[in-house]
Amino acid sequence: NAGVTQTPKFQVLKTGQSMTLQCAQDMNHEYMSWYRQDPGMGLRLIHYSVGAGITDQGEVPNGYNVSRSTTEDFPLRLLSAAPSQTSVYFCASSFGTGAYNEQFFGPGTRLTVL
Amino acid sequence: AQSVTQLGSHVSVSEGALVLLRCNYSSSVPPYLFWYVQYPNQGLQLLLKYTSAATLVKGINGFEAEFKKSETSFHLTKPSAHMRDAAEYFCAVSFGSGNTGKLIFGQGTTLQVKP
To answer: DSSP 3-state assignment of B71?
Structure first.
């Protein structure tokens, strides 16, 4: 059971480039989400999904797209990278969508945009 | 609006000393409260959670937290710090029944443990 996996671990982009951060979970979890972590700001929710085919915006969605074609995968796309998107990105999943559910986090992707 | 505040971005204790990390929340509805720990270069791991059962919650690695509604607090404690407890700790809150599990995180507190 690998849990939540993320690739790549590190990435450097130039301004304007696009890329996709991959996230997968093998726990058959309904709920998946993406957060970004910035110093002194904790983690902020970017997008989330309550099941295959269903996504919604979180607190800081601008500049990011997501899709959920399968239960297992939840990729995050940066369409045109900006230096403000330099951050550490975490994917998380939970069994149910209730507010009391524990979320399981991946190891993170450290992204630098030059 | 709901919010979480962690008092102190850095806390330093000696090995064997009491650990106290403070968390206050603002909410108009009963909250679910969580403490997560992040070790260097890793993802977040759940320490404990409050879901309206017992107000004193015990977690992993000897940590516990007490929910105090009158003080809107959920402080994290451990009687005796170990070197391995050095990490960043996040308090988080989720609101309402049927909520889609959106967590609001505090800013984080870095715990340093001195030998």
So the answer is: helix
